[in-house]
Amino acid sequence: MTIDTADFEKIYVSRCVTLRSALEQMDRAGKGLLLLVDEEGCFERTVTDGDLRRELLSGRSLDESLISLPQTRSVTIPETTSRREALEILNNHSVDHLPVVNSKGSVVNLLERKEIDSHILLSTPHMGESEHAFVEEAFRSNWIAPLGPHVDAFENEMAGLIGRSHALAVNSGTAAIHLALRLLGVEQGDRVFCSTLTFVASANPIVYQGATPVFIDSERESWNMCPVALEKAFEAAKVEGWKPKAVIVVNLYGQSADFDAIQAVCDAQEVPIVEDAAESLGGMYKGQASGSFGRLSIFSFNGNKIITTSGGGMLLSDEPALIEQARFLATQARDPAPHYQHSAVGYNYRMSNILAGVGRGQLEALGDRVHARRAVFESYRSGLSDIPEILWMPEPVWSESTRWLTACTIVPTPKIDREKLRLHLAEDLIEARPVWKPMHLQPIYQSAPYYMSGEASVSDELFANGLCLPSGSNLSSQQIDQTIGSIRAAFGR
Ligand SMILES: *Cc1c(COP(=O)(O)O)cnc(C)c1O
Prior knowledge:
Elements: H1 5-9, E1 12-13, H2 19-29, E2 33-37, E3 43-48, H3 49-57, H4 83-92, E4 97-101, E5 107-112, H5 113-116, H6 131-140, H7 149-162, E6 166-170, H8 173-183, E7 191-195, H9 204-208, E8 212-216, H10 227-240, E9 246-250, H11 259-269, E10 273-276, E11 284-285, E12 288-289, E13 296-300, E14 313-317, H12 320-330, H13 353-364, H14 366-383, E15 390-392, E16 399-400, E17 406-410, H15 418-427, E18 433-434, E19 450-451, H16 458-465, E20 466-469, H17 477-490
Parallel strand pairs: 1-2, 7-8, 7-9, 8-19, 9-10, 10-13
Antiparallel strand pairs: 2-3, 4-5, 6-14, 11-12, 11-16, 13-14, 15-17, 17-20, 18-20
Bound molecules: pyridoxal-5'-phosphate (PLP).
Pyridoxal-5'-phosphate binds near residues 250 and 300.
């Protein structure tokens, strides 16, 4: 809780002042209330404009003092009160202000309802200035269908930005991964390697195709797929006499995986890569755009991602034939005939022209969003630099992460650990989440094979101690400061 003491002095009032000067003071301060203090400076009660009005109506003149103001005690809270408790007290007493009082009885902060009656969320949509115009254009021209000029333009803009020749807009990132696996011929009985530390949507499409996932551990340097563990998995497969059909490489929290090392392993085995760049739009690997690696790559425009179409995704490749085939499959695999004819089973996976309009507007602001997310991370890092138990997700020299989510690990001590910190933040109405639960620990994938580089599982440790902090590009500096303050309090600083 930060206070501007000068602001408080403007609303302190004693019983000696006249009603007139109290009204004038209230008018000047513009807070709609005053803090009545006794001779020792101890807080007694709040005085609202209603209180002063009632004094006047009961016949007192403007030149009389506040001496007869009823001696009711206002509800106050101690400095240690969490935001959740404070909100409950506001609601129970039907008040909009809560003075925070220290052990000496002085007011050190004044909580206002509008300030605490909102949760600080992990990552929320951030609309820019031109989305509206693009959507309006779709309505005006009646292009509401899952095709149209915005879809074509969005695909071209994305391909251009990422530096790939072809792109297909679809209705989710999951759909894009599913199409990628289908294009690579993944089918019943096949096996696909996949990063273990990820959101479940990276792996589920493997199962949609009737194939089996094999999970690969993270490296400490980037938290992404470990090339050594990948190589081990390939060796084990060779011994058993099989080869995966594809490798899904995930870029976590805005940071690319180490593609040179991973590509070298996969090239030697002649196995294609699908780059799951759902979380890393705007990021770079050795100066090359995230999403430009692998035979196919995907993005997500889900509501929590760095830019959003409320729901959507993109599949990209440098091979025109792959994207052409994906376009065919994504529109119910309709054969070129005047009637509806199908010789393959397709999907309804296309993005609507309206949502593509939202995407085009969002894309214009991508640079700003990356900048803002990195700035959020820097605020946390500098505001918490004196707490050695907080270790930030590393950013290797070859990576330019977007810091889509600010992620860290908490070195557990008897006093505090990741879970205690998360719960402490939740009490202050701040949403923080554990790092993704690795796929090999998920009930649905418990029996899937899992490969690590050594004896210890890095992803298990990151999951046990990892935390993602509120990271939205639209967080106010006050919300970031509140989060930092809450974390400092949890560590007793
Ligand atoms: C969000 C996400 C997806 C899925 O994208 P949707 O658009 O939500 O289907 C896939 N992989 C990762 C790593 C993600 O974070």
